[in-house]
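Sequence design from tokenized structure. All designs in this work follow the same two-part layout: the structure record, then the generated sequence. An example of the structure record is given first.
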């Protein structure tokens, strides 16, 4: 498994997207988000927008496993 991130000046954005991919168990996917300055400072909200867009694209294209797929086998051990 190989995973990496690059912020290219948007400090912390790549790491947050990588964390999102890990949480969603997205496999065999690369996400690239481009943002340019349009005169409005977004502040910390930029991370919310980047993550929401990434999540929407992953869901739309079927790269996110459903909750049932994430669960492991149930055990019948009594404690």
């Amino acid at each position: 498994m190989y995973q990496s991130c690059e912020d290219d000046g948007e400090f912390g954005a790549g790491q947050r997207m990588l964390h999102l991919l890990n949480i969603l168990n997205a496999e065999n996917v690369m996400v690239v988000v481009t943002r340019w300055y349009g005169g409005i400072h977004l502040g910390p909200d930029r991370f919310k927008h980047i993550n929401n867009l990434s999540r929407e694209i992953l869901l739309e294209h079927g790269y996110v496993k459903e909750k049932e797929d994430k669960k492991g086998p149930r055990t019948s051990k009594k404690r």
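Residues 13-70 form one domain. We note this feature because it recurs in several other targets discussed in the main text.
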